[in-house]
Amino acid sequence: MAPELPVDTARRLVLERLRDDERFVVVSHEHPDGDALGSVVALSRALRQIGKDVVAVLDAADMPVPREYRGLALETVTTTVPDDLEQRTAVYVDCGNADRMPVPGVREGARTVLNVDHHHDNTRFGDVDLVDPSASCTAEILWDLLPDLGVEPDRETAQALYIGLVTDTGRFMYGNTSTRSHLMAADLIACGVAPFDAYRRLYEGVPWAKLALLGRALERVRRELDGALTVVHLRRSDYADTGADESETEGIIDHVRTVAGTTVAAVARELPGTDDDVRTKVSLRAADGTIDVSAIARAGGGGGHPQAAGFTTTMGEDELVRFLAEQLLAHR
Length: 332
Ligand SMILES: [Mn+2]
Fold this sequence. Notes:
Blueprint: H1 7-20, E1 23-27, H2 34-49, E2 53-57, E3 77-78, E4 89-93, H3 106-109, E5 112-117, E6 128-131, H4 138-149, H5 155-168, H6 179-190, H7 195-203, H8 208-219, E7 222-224, E8 229-234, H9 236-242, H10 252-256, E9 264-270, E10 280-286, H11 293-299, E11 303-304, E12 308-313, H12 317-331
The structure holds manganese (II) ion.
């Protein structure tokens, strides 16, 4: 593990590499969200704008990306790791820990590894770790680097950054929303972002199957500890019956977390696989800000932010609910 550098030192070292190196590979975490995808696209475009050779790689299993992110300028993203990897600087964006790296071999094979992220529990797996938990999103850290790289973002780059910003701040509503987030939004709008277009792409055009899955989820809500713990458990059959795909689980937790009296909200969903291998992905939210849910996620083998975290488990529904209840009581 690299020594923990002050953020401004790390920022300077990352800028040096981005300016001086010529060939890059840009990657993010598995099941990339708006910030991960927006950051991959924005950084790749920005570096190309200053003449760099950039390969942006997503795992084939993560393609195509969820419907709401298809407006991003993804045409240059590939699923193949370049064979000259040992001559490239790898930039990991929005990737909190080494277990969440879906593209195998990049970290081990690249010449240098830059780790640019805002997760407070980032495992600092890079040669240089620019980890700034005060940033609302990784896109915000990248946006802040652009002037020093001599990049004036074009409309597509600005849109990619904006999607990271809007999704990670919960449309400028979560606690990570700051003066800087709004200044960034103003700047990106000046670069040609149309907020209403971005809103429509991200939050409208909802497929009927997604609403049907939400209906199923709301029927399944369990409230434990007098409602302090609110859990939804979705089975494989729920996806088969409604026709929803996994990515359409996103957003369900935002309904659950708003219920009065909730301290921790959880949405668990069974991952695809065989009947004797049932793994469940659990997303957690701190609903009233009194508990650091990343501590619960770490106890379950995962990680994340104090307000939003997750893990994957082989526990069945009742065992999982008991585990979450115990954890909630232990961390309250
Ligand atoms: Mn993020």
